[in-house]
Each structure stands twice: as structure tokens, then as C-alpha cells.
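User: Here's a chain of 73 residues. Predict its fold as C-alpha cells.
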Amino acid sequence: MDEPAWYEIRVKSHLDDSLSSAFAGMEMRYETLGETILYRTLPDQAALHGVLMRIRDLGLELLSVKQRSTTNN
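Assistant: Prediction complete.
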């Protein structure tokens, strides 16, 4: 059974307001190298796949995904 986990998802480019609204509920951090980091705790793998599909559908370049169990936070 899936458990909630904290994810850090890095995409290439800074997201403008129209794109960032597609990730409502996720925290964002803009890096100086022109990358955006999206992060938050997601309830399960299905929620993660939903975020990844949104990244794909918007034509964003996925750079990395890091996961950490919420029990280790």
C-alpha cells in the first residue's frame, strides 16, 4: 500500500503564472540556473503520476524527481 511521501520535482525553466497555477498546492522555488523546483508531500504514487503527467502535457522538461518518506522528515 502506498504511503504519503515528500517529493522534490525539478523542471527546466522558470514557470510563469499561467503554468504555476497548473501546480496549485505545490510549493515552488526558482533556482538561479533557470530551473523550478516543485515540492510537497503527496498522498500516493497516483498523485505523483498525476503531477508528472501534467509536466508532460505542458511540454516541460523534467530534470529530476527525489522522494523521501514522510516518516523521515
